[in-house]
């Protein structure tokens, strides 16, 4: 090309320069058409589902300033997690978290803990019957400023060797109970009678009889009782409840809940510390209401494996599933229960089964609740609520699929607005976050919405929210979400499953007499 | 460089279709409020997987990566379709595609969680698309057909 031609842009240049502009136009038009179609589909779906705009029913009020004085009974693994959720962590753990946060940018434990709301609590009493746990509990409880070992500590609480002494203390308003299952009822009753508010780990009771006594003690003494089903705080469960109540599932006829784990820790074969001896464990107090057995480190540290102290899969893990379903569907106590299973994998001397199936019937609501558990297979099975029009999978997130045979969605499926292969509605809080959680047991709990949830897009420990609700209710004289009535339903339903397993028969709930028959 | 009309037509067709693909990929990500590169990065395998997973682990960096992906794809797409700043657009495109390819190389023995729509051994469509735009770099067309003709003809 000559110099002259280069200097002037002629008509030919403009035409060739803009020759692909129609392609851009075609793109814009196709994009517009595609957006229009997906907007139309979305609007048509929203007319049917309409869950996104709705507010969730949990409180986001900050906690008020009245200081509540806490006593904790049982500072083993779970007890110390509850202390953390209440705002008290062992200084060495803080240093550990800081170290790991430096090593690995996805490790947010320190950052998240420091962001956890201050609940205005002070721990004034600690009771544990194993020396090492008590010491760890004391150190954590004194760490009211959330410091590492070199930092400033608060007052060290009084250590009690016996829970009864702790309950007598005047400087304790409320207690957290995180003992083995066989002590839950007994200590709750004693605490209520002493006028202390109670946060008790699940299951609420170990025997059927004490369940009535717990309810009476809590109600007669007018205390605020919260049962430790932290799933009550899980965001996706609130959404699931909305979806169910809006009738999006149609008539629900079957609910399937499951437990799948496959690790020694998941099957309750916990580590036995080398320094543990009869000298630093109060064995007699451990036995308590259980039948006498000679000192056994295995029984002490792996108590979940024996009926003598445990409630087995039914009380330990099914109760989480049941309470989530009770929260979403308001199930109440099952009308009948049958169960079967056995010790099929962990033949380590345990008495509780490691594989268990339980079927609970709700004929007056035309539905069944099925529980199926294995401690020796990781096959992932969700919590599924099945209705004629749609089914819903609930965990940390939520997915709702229309059923191809649905009556309600028949027209929309035909018109191509609803595709049964794609979720009709899905809810994934904190989608953009990276998850650094690793241990299999933690993954199990996280996947079931039991470890953390989201508030305003931020990840929060569900146990923290559950304790917050409890102490806020103490301050404002309200009832928390998992109160003793919910606890009664949880305990009785779980006991029915266990009773059916032991007696190898179908058991029934007599609603008039409020008895298992 | 001198082309026949026939050669120009097919080279421009290749440029425009690849541009269309880039532009659409970018806009889809832009309009999906939940899109993030995190899942893709974490799914990485192969000799560079630690590098990609490290990107996912850093939230500040991740925000940048998301931004660059979205606007990079859109800008490259528009550049290829309209033939504007085509050399820069194609070079950036080669870089992005190389990054995609190396994060999920279809090498023997590597398995991915993310679904693919075909069967690949070493060569996949990302690699082919990358080589195709390298061809476009070697046989440039935007100064014949495209806005670069107007921009670069003015001295």
Strand content of chain B: under 5%
Mean pLDDT, all residues of chain B: 91
| Terminus-to-terminus distance of chain B | 19 Å
Strand content of chain A: 15-25%
**Structure annotation, total helices of chain B:** 7
Strand order of the largest sheet of chain A: 14-13-12-11-7-10-9-8-17-18
What's the Cα radius of gyration of chain B? 17 Å
- What is the H-and-E element order of chain B? HHHHHHH
User: Unreliable stretches of chain A, pLDDT < 50, 5 or more residues?
Assistant: 1-5, 433-438
Please tell me the total number of domains of chain B: 1
Morphology of chain A: globular
Secondary structure tally: strands of chain A:
18
CATH class of the largest domain in chain A: Alpha Beta
Radius of gyration of chain A: 27 Å
Number of domains of chain A: 2
Report on this structure.
The complex is a heterodimer of chains A (517) and B (155). With 517 residues, chain A is of the alpha/beta class. Chain A folds into 2 domains: 68-232, NAD(P)-binding Rossmann-like Domain (Rossmann fold, 3-Layer(aba) Sandwich); 234-516, Dihydrodipicolinate Reductase, domain 2 (2-Layer Sandwich). Chain A contains 18 helices and 18 strands. Chain A has helices at 3-7, 11-17, 21-48, 77-86, 91-103, 109-115, 131-142, 163-168, 181-193, 208-220, 235-245, 283-287, 297-301, 312-329, 410-414, 440-447, 462-476, 484-503; strands spanning 68-73, 121-127, 158-160, 174-177, 197-201, 225-228, 252-260, 336-342, 355-362, 367-374, 383-387, 390-394, 398-402, 423-427, 452-455, 458-461, 507-510, 515-516. In chain A, the strands form 3 sheets. In chain A, strands 14-13-12-11-7-10-9-8-17-18 form a 10-stranded mixed sheet. A 6-stranded parallel sheet of chain A has the order 3-2-1-4-5-6, with helices on both faces. In chain A, strands 15-16 form a two-stranded antiparallel sheet. The model of chain A is unreliable at 1-5 and 433-438 (pLDDT under 50). By secondary structure, chain B is mainly α. Chain B has one domain. Chain B is globular, with a radius of gyration of 17 Å. The relative contact order of chain B is 0.17. The mean pLDDT of chain B is 91.
């Amino acid at each position: 090309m000559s110099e002259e031609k280069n200097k002037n842009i002629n008509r030919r240049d403009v035409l060739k320069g803009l020759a692909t502009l129609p392609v851009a136009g075609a793109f814009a038009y196709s994009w517009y058409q595609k957006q229009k179609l997906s907007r139309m589909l979305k609007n048509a779906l929203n007319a049917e589902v309409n869950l996104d705009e709705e507010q969730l029913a949990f409180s986001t009020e900050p906690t008020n300033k009245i200081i509540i004085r806490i006593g904790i009974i049982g500072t083993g693994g779970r007890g110390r997690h509850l202390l953390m959720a209440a705002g008290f962590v062992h200084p060495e753990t803080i240093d550990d978290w800081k170290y790991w946060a430096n090593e690995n940018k996805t490790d947010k434990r320190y950052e998240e803990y420091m962001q956890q709301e201050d609940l205005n609590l002070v721990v004034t009493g600690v009771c544990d019957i194993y020396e090492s746990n008590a010491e760890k509990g004391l150190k954590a409880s004194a760490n009211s400023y959330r410091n590492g070992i070199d930092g400033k500590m608060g007052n060290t609480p009084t250590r009690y060797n016996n829970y009864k002494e702790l309950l007598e203390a005047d400087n304790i308003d409320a207690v957290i109970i995180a003992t083995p299952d066989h002590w839950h009822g007994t200590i709750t009753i004693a605490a209520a009678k002493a006028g202390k508010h109670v946060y008790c780990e699940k299951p609420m009771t170990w025997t059927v009889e004490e369940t009535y006594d717990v309810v009476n003690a809590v109600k007669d003494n007018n205390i605020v009782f919260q049962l430790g089903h932290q799933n009550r705080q899980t965001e996706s469960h609130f959404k699931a409840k909305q979806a169910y109540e809006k009738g999006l599932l149609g008539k629900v006829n079957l609910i399937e809940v499951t437990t799948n784990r496959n690790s020694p820790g998941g099957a309750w074969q916990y580590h036995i510390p080398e320094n543990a001896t009869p000298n630093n464990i109060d064995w007699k107090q451990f036995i308590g209401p259980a039948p006498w057995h000679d000192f056994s480190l295995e029984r002490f540290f792996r108590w979940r494996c024996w009926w003598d102290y445990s409630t087995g899969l039914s009380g330990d893990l099914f109760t989480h599933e049941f309470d989530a379903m009770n929260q979403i569907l308001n199930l109440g106590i099952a009308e009948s229960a049958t169960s079967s299973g056995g010790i099929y994998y962990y033949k380590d001397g345990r008495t509780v089964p490691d594989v268990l199936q339980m079927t609970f019937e709700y004929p007056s609501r035309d539905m069944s609740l099925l529980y199926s558990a294995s401690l020796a297979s990781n096959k992932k099975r969700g919590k599924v609520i099945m209705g004629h029009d749609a089914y819903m999978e609930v965990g940390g997130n939520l997915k709702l699929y229309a059923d191809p045979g649905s009556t309600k969605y028949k027209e929309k499926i035909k018109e191509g607005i609803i595709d049964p292969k794609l979720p009709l509605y899905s809810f994934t809080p904190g989608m953009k976050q990276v998850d650094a959680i690793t241990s299999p047991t933690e993954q199990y709990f996280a996947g079931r919405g039991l470890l953390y949830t989201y508030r305003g897009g931020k990840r929060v420990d569900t146990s923290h929210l559950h304790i917050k609700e409890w102490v806020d209710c103490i301050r404002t004289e309200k009832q928390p979400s998992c109160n003793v009535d919910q606890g009664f339903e949880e305990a009785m339903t779980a006991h029915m499953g266990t009773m059916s397993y032991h007696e190898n028969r179908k058991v029934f709930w007599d609603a008039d007499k409020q008895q298992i028959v | 460089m001198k082309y026949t009309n026939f050669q120009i037509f097919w080279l421009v067709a290749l440029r425009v279709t690849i541009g269309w693909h880039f532009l659409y990929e970018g806009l889809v990500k832009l309009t999906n409020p939940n899109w993030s590169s995190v899942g893709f990065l974490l799914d990485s395998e192969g000799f560079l997987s630690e590098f990609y997973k490290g990107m996912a682990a850093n939230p500040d960096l991740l925000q940048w990566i998301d931004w660059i992906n979205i606007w990079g794809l859109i800008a490259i797409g528009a550049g290829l379709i309209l033939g504007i700043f085509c050399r820069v657009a194609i070079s950036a495109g080669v870089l992005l595609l190389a990054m995609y390819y190396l994060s999920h190389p279809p090498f023997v023995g590597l398995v991915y969680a993310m679904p693919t729509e075909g069967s690949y051994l070493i060569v996949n469509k990302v690699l082919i698309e990358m080589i195709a735009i390298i061809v476009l770099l070697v046989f440039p067309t935007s100064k014949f057909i495209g806005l670069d003709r107007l921009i670069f003809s003015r001295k």
